[in-house]
Design brief:
This protein is 83% helix and 0% strand. By secondary structure, the chain is mostly helical. It starts with a helix and ends with a helix.
């Protein structure tokens, strides 16, 4: 997918007033302190990198060590039994997901601040895609709370037998899978637009931008396939996630360890 049209289309477009007002005080404060030499963009980069790595680790823990242990594929009864017997662990997984989404807020603001000197409007576009992604994923956590409601002892649940409750529980988990996929479609566009900005920036290695754009395409292919052909999506998922993991981990490590090329970043910042 070519991305040169993004630069042509958005380089002279005025910012959306509502969106700029939303983040304007924070961003202006950050910019003024950077220009005054009070805060280095390297500090922002390293904070962003540490938060990004933390997000990746927490997300992997929640999926690999909690949900994959408790959810038994195509077996509603075994899944319900596992969640019932490990209710607190299931709740920890939900909290981990919420912490991950909370971390996403400062990360997206830091990345916007670092990439804005390259193209302010495209950086804002990526920020908007990221906000939608996070909002969708946070709302989707209700599907993980649903099993806890269905496994309760409230009188209104007596209208259903155990098999029906287990089936409803499993349907809520399937809904969560699809909700997660819907959110990641927006994140695919985040990776593509941020990748473009990194390639054009001059203060990040171009290879990171290329890796992020490949990751973005993988997100889009996998999650649109989930909607169109779920069986095929299950087969290609492991292969799609390898470039994603490499790209996001590489970008996070670069931010945390080396940050930006300070001279080139300041040169572009002065042109804003």
């Amino acid at each position: 997918m070519g991305t040169h049209w993004l630069s042509r289309r958005f380089s002279n477009v005025p910012l959306l007033p509502g969106c700029e007002l939303l983040a304007a005080p924070i961003v202006r404060s950050m910019n003024s302190k950077i220009k005054a030499g009070q805060i280095s963009p390297q500090l922002y980069a390293r904070i962003g990198g540490i938060l990004y790595l933390s997000l990746i680790i927490i997300g992997m823990f929640s999926v690999v060590f909690i949900r994959e242990r408790l959810i038994v594929s195509l077996n509603a009864e075994a899944t319900a039994t596992n969640i019932r017997n490990s209710e607190f662990l299931w709740r920890i997984g939900i909290v981990c997901d919420l912490v991950m989404h909370l971390l996403d807020i400062p990360i997206m603001l830091i990345i916007y601040t670092l990439l804005k000197p390259t193209n302010k409007n495209i950086a804002l576009l990526a920020l908007l895609f990221n906000l939608i992604q996070t909002a969708v994923l946070v709302a989707n956590k209700l599907n993980l709370l649903m099993p806890l409601f269905l496994l309760g002892n409230d009188d209104y649940l007596k209208a259903f037998d155990v098999q029906q409750l287990n089936s409803l529980l499993y349907v809520s988990l399937k809904a969560h899978d699809y909700g997660f996929g819907l959110g990641l479609i927006f994140f695919g566009f985040v990776c593509i637009t941020n990748g473009y900005l990194i390639i054009k920036s001059g203060y990040f290695p171009k290879i990171i931008g290329v890796l992020l754009q490949v990751a973005g395409l993988c997100y889009l292919v996998n999650n649109f396939t989930l909607i169109l052909n779920p069986l095929l999506a299950n087969k290609i998922f492991p292969f799609m996630m390898i470039p994603v993991f490499i790209a996001e981990t590489t970008f996070a490590l670069r931010l945390a360890i080396k940050g930006v090329n300070l001279d080139k970043w300041k040169l572009k910042q002065e042109l804003l």
